[in-house]
Each structure stands twice: as structure tokens, then as C-alpha cells.
Design brief:
This protein has about 300 residues and is an alpha/beta fold. The protein is about 35% helix and about 25% strand.
Length: about 300
Amino acid sequence: MPEEFMNTKEVAEYLGINEKQVYALIKAGKMPCTRVTGKWVFPKHIIDEWIESNTRTSFKSSANNDHEPDRILAAGSNDPVLDLLISQKIQDNVNIFSCNTGSTEGLRLLGESKADIAWCHLFDPETGTYNIPYIASHMADRKVAIVHLFYREIGLLVAPDHAKKIKKLEDISSGVRFINRQKGSGIRLFLDYNLKKAGIDSAAITGYENEVYTHFEIGLSILSGKADAGISSVAISKLMGIPFVPLARESFDMVVGKDTFFEKGIQAFIETLQTKKFRKTVEPLGDYSFADSGKILYSTAG
């Protein structure tokens, strides 16, 4: 890139801030920049002019002001318990903004420094483990840690009039209207793996191509009569009163960059998850286990 232009990493180093703060400033429309071939670039002379009118001292004061809220950007998987956790008053001046993109997309955004956290539950058939095998292919050289949040039970939500007909995953291939999760989601990967294992062609699943992005949408599709079955967490079964066929117990984890892991917002989030008050709040939602919550499962070197 020509010397008179800088990319996001270079402008972050030039200003002495984290790259995620650069993205936050871009999103807020507070930093001069332009997009070239899909990437943000910063003309150096314009950045210099911007610094002169917004001195570095005042900028850092604003970025670190105790009265300014800390903004944590998250993306990835979805779960009702996670939604409740995010909605908690974790700590003064800490706000978590989360986007339901699916586990794989969450990892991509984290790897590109467009998110601080990725929520994941990606099962690897070869190792029988969750999330760790996917780090190398999505994180490039970024240093991250995987922190366990909770274990949850997932299974088939079944319309009441199909409860006697659907007793296992293979039963969805026999004239059942299915509602699916989007490509790249942990649920979708789980479904595709088990269909292949059972020798079932996805083309034989009525509604396989019909996709939604959250567990609540799975439940609503069944309650509204648009579908007969879909895979979701046990919490949706409890909340909506929909029959449930257990399929697996999985690990739901948080992948976080090492540069943000020790920030007060991240630590406060983990601490809130471990409180008796929060666990009592989600107790009625079904088979969730918090026995290993907060445990660091994996950490890249460096």
C-alpha cells in the first residue's frame, strides 16, 4: 500500500490504540476514511489533520474516560441463556452488542478483528471435541483463548401432533416439514454430520432449505404451524411448551482475542455467569450445566 495510505492496523499503531477502537470510530462516523476494494484505508495527511483538530490527548481521554461506556462487539451462535446473560447489568459502563451470525461467521469476524468475541459450539467429528479444531483455520495469526460458558442439551422441537411420530433424528425424513438453521451455524453442521452418518440425503428432508437464524425462530415456526420439527436448545422447549427429543449435550464457548481477554468488561461477563443469582434465573430453562463455566479450554501461544 502506498506510504500516504494506511490500513486499519497501521492507523491503530499510528494513533496508539487497539484496532477494534478504529472499527468503533469508523462505525460511529468519527474517523475520516474510505473503502477501497472492500478494505478501509486512511489517507495519512487527512488523519494528521484530524489529529490536529482532535488532539491525541483528548482522544485518549475520551476513549478511556470512566464515564464513557465500554463497548464489546460479539458475533456468532445464539442461545436463550446467552441472551439472558447479555441482558444482565454486568457492570457499570459495560455494553455488549451481539449479532446472531452463526458460529462459523462469528469466528471469521473475530479473526478479522471486526468482533471482540465469537460465541461457538462447533463439533469436530474427527476429534469428538468442540471449537478448538476450528481455531487454526479461522484465526490466522490472531492470538485467542477459548473460555467455556456452559453445557446445554440440544434436540428436536416437535409439533404436538407429530410427537408420537418423531422419536429420533432419522424420523424427520418421512414426510415431516423441517425448519433449518443457516449455513455455518453449529446446529446446521451438527445436522449435516448426523444426516451423513445415517446415510440420509438432505434432499429427502422437506424444508431443509428453509433457514432461520435463532432458536426462538425455530420455536415460532413450529408454534405457528409453518413447520413440524427443528433442532433447538432445550430452553425453547421449556419456554414455549413444545415437545422435545434430546439429541446431544454440547459445549457452548466464548472465543476471545488475548488483547481483550483481561479487559474489565470481559472479566465482568465471566463473573456474572458464575453468580448464584444468574444461575438461579436460568434454572427453569432446562438441562444446562455451569460446572466448568469460566474455564480456559485452549489458548494460542504468544
